[in-house]
Amino acid sequence: MKKNKTDKAERIEKAEKTEKNVKAAHGSDTRDLRDPRYYINRELSWMQFDERILEEARDPSLPLFERLKFLSITASNLDEFFMIRIASLKDMKNAGYKKADISGMTPKMQLNALAEATHEFVNEQYSTFTRMLLPKLQEEGLRFVKHHEELTESEKDFADRYFKENVYPVLTPMAVDSSRPFPLVRNKTLNIGALVRTEENDIEFAMVQVPSGLPRIIELPRGTDGVRSVILLEEIIERNIGGLFLSYNVICSHPFRVMRNADFEIDEDEAEDLLIEIEKQLKKRQRGVAIRLECESGIDKRLLSILEKELNVKDNDVYFINGPLDLTFLMKLYGIPGFDHLKEEKYEPQFPKYMEPDISIFDQIKDHDILLWHPYESFTPVVRFIQEAARDQDTLAIKQTLYRVSGDSPIIKALAQAAENGKQVTVLVELKARFDEENNIIWAKMLEKAGCHVIYGLKGLKTHSKITLVVRREEDGLRRYVHLGTGNYNDSTAKQYTDIGFLTCAEPYGEDATAVFNMLSGYSEPAVWNKLSLAPLWLKERFLYLIGRETENANNGREARIIAKINSLCDIDIIEALYKASSAGVKIDLIVRGICCLKTGIPGVSENITVRSIVGSYLEHARIFWFLNEGKDELYCASADWMPRNLERRVEILFPIETPALIDDLKHILQVQLEDNTKARLMTDDGIYIRITPGRNSKKGAQKTFMKEALSVTASRARNRQERVFIPETAQPSDEEVLRI
Predict the structure, then answer these.
(1) Residues of the chain above pLDDT 70, percent
(2) 6 belongs to a structural domain
(3) Are 191 and 266 found together in one domain?
(4) What is the pLDDT of residues 311-328, one digit of tens each?
(5) pTM here?
(6) Would you name the residues annotated as active-site residues?
(7) Domain CATH for 651
(8) Omega of the bond leading into 375 within 30 degrees of 0 (cis)
(9) 554 in Cβ contact with 639 (< 8 Å)
(10) 389 vs 468: CA distance, rounded Å
(11) What is the tens place of the pLDDT at every residue in 585-627?
């Protein structure tokens, strides 16, 4: 992959010139902008993000069931954090790796700090659940049975029948003795461990896995008071555990859960078939090294000792849980019918304002560029884009990158249909998309079977860019239609994540899209690119140039401004460039959802930088960048965050938005988010986040604002339709006809 040397040389020259200007402006200031004191540790910053989500679970102003959902999200996030980030740090420590990160912390130092932070966090999770949410559930008529001993006599009868009829046939009790070794405890599974006494008076270990294929939440028959009650599956199993080990006397039983290292590396030089190698690695994920053991508080010390020894975990890796293990079950509790009044009013994504439902999507794109703002606007047009192309007799080819897709993806079906209809379909399926590897393997095989040409990503790189190209034969020749996005082609998460989509048939974008797919499929890269900037080729260089240009403008006394909305910021080169820009007087506003290693308020370094994080009903996922450029605003969207992995080890795209109306839309999105004072948290000079407190009559919530605006467009469209309907005075419509109008 070679870059145009002339273009590259010019950018390097500009960046070097900018750096010289900054140094000249500061004279003798030789401050080291890479001083570890100027940076926040990445992992501790992530913990702060999960704490912000936990704040939502603790917020009494939110509907009760929304708080349950947020608490569930913190648990899911923490699981992944352990399986990947903490597992990686443990690998580094065990390998003797002692190099410090940008904040000056070695792997060992990070693990010590994280052990303290995660234990404290887990305690706060369960304090939130037991002290704040459970009493509220009881008040609202939903009783949560914490232990099977709390059951009434009639409930005990029901639980025992349920066990016998629905659970017992599925269970596989396992005893451990001289002839039966300690069983494999699979990653993230919930288990019940027991100590049992044999007829010879020996004490042995036994266990049973709580089956994941059965509902974990069981609703009990209503009592005379009308209160609804639920109990967890493990409590029903524990109540009947004696029936699983009839030849033994059960001394004690306690639930436990193991988290294993789920991060695997693949030597792609040695892997002859990437698909087969990843399938092998997925099986190993269940057997990875144990990195966390969750146990019920009050667990028998003898049972704990056996688990620690057999799983090879240290004291710091044991978490004593005061409540039910694995709070992700709360997402299922959220789905229990009958409690809609305790949830946010459901919002349905609206039809995009730049589109009409009854006109060919290709005709609309040919007429004007289209910006989509999900989930406030529907993702359906993106699906329809593929579906219409698959059926259209003028479509010659469809090319698309897929990173994560939904379980029953209409896009996958449309691509398969296109191939069956004789279109040339090329799909890059990223097999290395973490925790979606298995799904992606299934989709890849299905697409191949349908006749699609499937590419399994590039060696050594993850393809994270979101791009679709449709080539059509039209009266005036071939025309290329392009969709570029900041989020995945996943119709399910598109209702939960905020993302930008862009549809165009402008030829410069079409040429670049063709070049991207030619590069991905192995063809040589073109000498010149028109609009797109790609990682790992020169995207980082492009960002540094854009930041450097604002720095140069500030040094020359011109107004300079940068606003960036991203998910994470931890690339040291980008942060150093932002520090230089701030020192030169560039006003910088960063909207960073999660990790942020940059510090604000450092005298002479980051006094002109603000960092805010918005945590709301939707996951903030869009990447938008605004550079003032002497009043000639430049707006970009990207699939990439400001992280080393995105800029150096993934295939990512940055694309400019140049249509004036769409530029105004992106500026509006950023401005509304900067004005949020209900869901935004502002980073203080000491690196912590504080919630912005609105005045009594000045509440502004960005997500609520975008919902209202989308609904307003829908209402306006409906009014315009009504005005276009001519109704003769002598023929008034029926009520049914009015509803149709």
Answers:
(1) 88
(2) no
(3) yes
(4) 999 889 999 999 999 999
(5) 0.88
(6) 464
(7) 3.30.870.10
(8) yes
(9) no
(10) 11
(11) 999 999 999 999 999 999 999 999 999 999 999 999 999 999 9
